Amino acid sequence: MTTGRPYHHGDLRRAVLDAAIEAITEHGPAGVGLRDLARRVGVSHAGPVHHFKDKAGLLTALAAEGFTLLADALDATVTAGGDIIELGAAYVRFAVEHRAHFEVMFRPDLYHADDPALVEARDRAGAALAGGVADRPDPELASVAAWSLVHGFATLWNTGALSRTDRDPVAMVRAFAGSMFLT
Amino acid sequence: MTTGRPYHHGDLRRAVLDAAIEAITEHGPAGVGLRDLARRVGVSHAGPVHHFKDKAGLLTALAAEGFTLLADALDATVTAGGDIIELGAAYVRFAVEHRAHFEVMFRPDLYHADDPALVEARDRAGAALAGGVADRPDPELASVAAWSLVHGFATLWNTGALSRTDRDPVAMVRAFAGSMFLT
DNA sequence: GCGCGAACTTGACGCTGACAAGATTGCGTG
DNA sequence: CACGCAATCTTGTCAGCGTCAAGTTCGCGC
Hints:
Two copies of one chain form a homodimer. By secondary structure, chain A is mostly helical. Chain A contains eight helices and no strands. The mean pLDDT of chain A is 92. The structure holds a DNA duplex.
């Protein structure tokens, strides 16, 4: 408790976020608690409150970070000349590699969905995804279809509903996205 | 629903389940509490505990009920001669009409995923879904693709991520599922 | 080197889920 | 018909949670 711990942590905000990511990866979004995170990081029970006003604020920050990471990954795929298949693969790769972020991002009842930073990052990711099907007839329908396909696969994979297969998830989505969107 | 009063305060189990469905539809699975449900139904704070041993038990019952309803809907579609498009439409219709059930069903961190009744109903639903693509090359991949498509669409629709369209969700899934699976 | 404000602690409040023990009531059994 | 039993529900209690308010410590600009 009082053994040489500096009063100021240094980067408590980052530390709490990382602890939250770890806890959510292990036990899901429901298994995360502000006091528990404070304990993991080694500060008092109200320490995190100063950085994220409340529990929803912490999850808002996590979701915003997630949308930013996703938008970056999608943008990088586009600028590297990737087609819609690569876009889908990047989406699934993000969901698998950043499972905690991904699970929070699509539970708007857990955070403040009108946060400006979050909205901006989310729109950026949405635009990158929609850009991949802009040249098709009824692009709105095509974008929803493509998004549904990769999002559903990522969700089912992360919840363990597909656990009986031992294939590589990114390879799988490449396979059936190819047979559907490259007629 | 409350025709007979077999006990002190009626059919408490059904009443609590219905109250949970209502609460989850309004505020999401995170916004439901055992004590709150007891209050809504008009019993003391520990009344529900006797029917569902704990909070996870309540959600287990809800999830099992949901998988049963889904399996029934899919089986009915199959016996009515529906093809894979109709199967997908039935899936999405279930997700939209029974949103509370659907949201709990795919959050295994909230309930006891090894409950026998739940496992049986879930397998039944999975078999009905897989049967629609059994006659294709690589049926495992096709079934995952079909499931991903409708599941992703249902999830995105229910979380409000697709809210900018005012089209009918079942008609939408029929449209793009048709263009993908009826080559 | 000093004070000001940000970062963190301490303490308290009402809420929650879980458990234990007591009260009430329908129902089968004798 | 009555009696006892077990299922149902209540009451009371406990630790833990999120949130707020007030106090303490310390980095940093002036």
